[in-house]
Amino acid sequence: MTQAIVRKSLYEADFFLWTQDTIAKIKNGNFDDIDWGNLIEEIESLGKSDKREIESRLYTLLEHLLKLIYIDMPQEFNGWKRTIREQRRQLKSLLKQSPSLKSIWSETFESAFTDSLNDVREDYPQYQFPDKWQFECDIDTMLNVDFWNCSTESAALPRFL
Hints:
Layout: H1 10-13, H2 15-27, H3 36-70, H4 74-97, H5 105-123, H6 139-144
């Protein structure tokens, strides 16, 4: 009986060791022995991870903004504001580290708003929420404006509908 010997690659057997080995090979200019397929996959994964983080943090930011602006639960306001501050801080940091992520903001905003709107509507069916975001949605505005304090006529919305 012949047994097939299955040899795991270093990548499959010990990911951390694979990263250290790959770094050493690059530093030493030993490009012929680099596991290019897995290296390319990991680099692609890093970009996707940053995009997912933008989407996730923007979703959470919008969800808490919707709650703070439209839900009459004063006992929750401080918690919602803390979450808004933290999401903004993390988004600013991520965009500072990778400014090119700003290019996906518009497409990410639409899907994050739709998802957050659907979830707050499900969680708070007794409240009404607008079908569209009622404020500017550019990066600077979203990361700096306290929409619940807006007093201009175009931005003023009733807190409790």
